[in-house]
Amino acid sequence: MRALLSTLLSGVACLHLAGAATAQTLPPVPAEQTEVQPAILVADSVFITPERQLIAEGNVEAFQGDIRLQAQKITFDRQSGQLSIEGPIRIDQGGRATVLADAAQLDKTLQDGLLTGARMVFDQQLQLAALQMTRVGGRYTQLYKTSVTSCHVCENGKPPLWQIRAQKVVHDQLEQQLYFEGAQFRVLDVPVFYFPAMRLPDPNLKRATGFLIPSIRTTSQLGTGIKVPYFFRLGDHRDLTVSPYVSSKTKTLDLRYRQAFARGRIEIDGAYTRDDLIPGEDRGYVFATGQFDLRDDYKLKLGVQAVSDNGYLADYGLPEYDRLRSEISIERFRRDSAFRIGLIHYETLRDSEIEDEIPTEIFDINAEKRYFPTGLGGEVRLAFDGHAHQRQSSANVVGRDIARATLDAEWLRSWTFASGLRADWRMGVAVDDYRVWDDSNYASGTLRSAPRAALTLRYPMIYRGTTGTHFLEPIAQLGWSDVSGAPLPNGESNFVEFDQGNLLALSRFPANDQREEGKRAVFGLNWARFSPSGWQAFATVGQVFRSTSDPRFSKSSGLGGTASDLLLAGQITLPQGLGLTARGLLDGSLNFSKVEVRGSWTDDRTSVSGSYLWLGRDLAENRALAVSEFWFDGSYKVNPYWTASANIRYDIEDSRATRAGIGFAYQNECVTVNISVNRRYTSSTSVEPSTDFGFTIALSGFAVESANKEYRRSCSKT
Q1: Which residues of 378-399 are buried (b: 16+ CB within 10 A; e: fewer)?
Q2: 404 forms bridges with which residues in the sheet?
Q3: Alpha-carbon distance 271 to 243, whole Å?
């Protein structure tokens, strides 16, 4: 029978021996305020000698909190207050850190002592092996003649892929830092770098001031350069990352600032550049975002995008926008109400656009409220929509400025009959007050009204069989709307999409400056199938008929004429990870005016996604030539260590690629290497074709949750 001894001796404070701790955000509690937890000692035998020594031997285990100590023998000399521990010794602390040693001499508080043949393991990955380990003051662990690595160490003596050899390593448990003296960085035991002194974070520390993973980037325009990020921890809620990027043709300083508040957060990214692409000029960009929670569920959102010139984002591999959007808004969304007000500034990066002739300052305000009157039944919606935009130019027509205010009221009600037929009724009216400046073709002020009504009938049917469940829903709608008042300029509804989302809408224009008029009928069919084996399929077919054609709809919108193009949309998903979505508009000549197909496939080793888009020639949408393109992005896991990836964007109409890239990533338990090559073929006045080579290497073990057992290597027998 194994002996069990439970004691309240403060000397059995195994927590201080673990050599690692979780992140500290508050000062340590004074000793007099610390509650001493009981420790439990278990061994094959526990006895006290005539010399007043407590001896526990044979599979000795000690427990205190989340600490577990295992040894072959423990001797406690009460007179000297020393603990002698014979190994093999193993001390675990909640799976975060483990200490292994051959033998140990410690005082009764376990605050000070000496361990020989010791090894410390953080997060089951980073290993610090030393000839001797000393504990000082319960806070510092000193290791002498130490080897540090996160690679799997084989017993056959084969050196790890990389290691750091140091004369001395000090682990500060409170600050969670590792200090190296006389350190060598070795690759396959070959010295590569020497550091007289070096500091690295404890793997359990989530945020620490220091260097981040460097990267090497080579482009045909900027040459070969290196970026070395440095992270500044400015407190528990703020940080700054400074990333110098230097090559033979550029000197760039990237900055990122983040701060969290009690009710919000901000992030600012930017860069300052002097390069040979535009000699003698300052270049750079600033992107900023912010969000704050205000009183009564209101939210304040901020967004800033600014760049020095049209080509900067493309030159430096940043997200390529063709227009920059800066915005400040306040919004609140509740179950029966919605409110949003925003001010937006646009800046074009398209060489074909003249900045003064596009709307750059935009103001929007939207408010909606729902009511459920018991006497009337159904639902009543009241809404206000305001919009204004301004161009910098004051020239006639091209400098047109607009302001609009809309009041809208709508009543909706539904009935479900015993036969299963469902009827949806809606009727409403909108009143617009429209103002126009700098355009002599339209009146300066226009007031118009737009009543509308529609009845929609649905008959959903379900069939459940041994092969699966089928859902079929025929749909029919009769609708009418009218607009009284002078015609208005089309300033917000130049591009119209016809899809499942607006098949039953009474106006398919994206904004209220344009509205559909006349009598209309819509016929459609929804179908779905759910198979017991796991695959699912959905399809929608629909068409719109109107009493008179509307010339405001472009040819490729699919809504021109008295009968629209036939809307075809479908989706299929398979349990094997395959998904396919398609949408198209088929005209009366059985030709497609628009086609879009998206697909993806994912399994344990492969991840593939792609899209195909075809748009017909349409001058009304500024498209002089048809567009036919496909995108592809995929990766394949060659083996547990290597992953290959590729991407391409191909212009079928021009028979050339616009973008293409390949990449390779190698990852094991101690290192991650990424190599990529990307080529941009397109060019403009401000952007030239370029090739971008990227290379990064990261050593695992010095970041939180960096370990990955999936990539653990095995040792060969030779």
Answers
A1: ebbbebebbbbbbbebeeeeeb
A2: 387, 434
A3: 9
pLDDT value of position 718: 47
Give 75-84 pLDDT, tens digit per residue: 888 777 788 8
Dihedral angle of Cα 82, 84, 90, 96, to the nearest 10 degrees: 10
350 φ, ψ to 5°? -80, 130
For residues 320, 326, 331 and 335, what is the CA-based torsion angle, rounded to 10 degrees? -20
Render pLDDT for 252-284 as a digit per residue (tens, 0 to 9): 999 999 999 999 999 999 999 999 999 999 999
Question: What number of helices (H) and strands (E) belong to the chain?
Answer: 1, 42
- Rounded to whole angstroms, the Cα distance separating 710 from 536 reads 33
pLDDT tens track for 607-661: 999 999 999 888 888 888 889 999 999 999 999 899 999 999 999 988 899 999 9
Give φ, ψ of 38 to 5 degrees.
Answer: -70, 145
Q: What pLDDT was estimated at residue 213?
A: 80
- pLDDT higher than 70, residue 294: yes
What is the number of other CB atoms lying within 10 angstroms of the CB of residue 636? 13
Question: Which secondary-structure segment (H or E) carries 435?
Answer: strand 422-437
pLDDT for 431 equals 97
538-560 as b/e, with b when 16 or more CB fall inside 10 Å? bebbbbbebeeebebbbbbbbbb
pTM for this one?
0.80
Give all strands (DSSP E) within 1-149, no chain letters: 3-7, 39-43, 45-48, 53-64, 67-77, 82-93, 97-107, 113-122, 126-136, 140-149
Residue 130 class from Cβ within 10 Å (0-12 exposed, 13-18 middle, 19+ buried)?
A: buried
Note whether 173 and 20 are within 8 A (CB): yes
Tell me which residue of 502, 543, 538 sits closest to 524, measured CA to CA: 543
DSSP state of 248: S
Q: Are 527 and 539 in contact (CB under 8 A)?
A: yes
pLDDT at 1: 37
CA–CA gap between residue 184 and residue 158 (Å, rounded): 18
The pair of structure tokens assigned to 536 is 């699912």
Q: How far apart are CA 468 and CA 534, in angstroms?
A: 10
pLDDT band at 713 (very low <50, low <70, confident <90, very high): low
pLDDT tens digits, one per residue of 315-353: 998 988 999 999 999 999 999 999 999 999 999 998 888
- Asked, as a colleague might, if the bond just before 279 is cis with ω within 30 of 0, I would say no
Contact between 294 and 330 (Cβ < 8 Å) = yes
d(CA 327, CA 364): 11
The structure tokens listed for 19 are 């050599």
Beta bridge partners of 60: 71
DSSP string, 103-129: EEEEETTSSSEEEEEEEEEETTTEEEE
Separation in Å, CA 551 to CA 37, 180, 561: 82, 76, 8
Nearest to 343 by CA among 316, 355, 361, 318: 361
DSSP for residue 14: G
Alpha helices in 404-527 (DSSP H): none
Q: Give the mean model confidence (pLDDT) for residues 578-592.
A: 92
d(CA 322, CA 301): 22
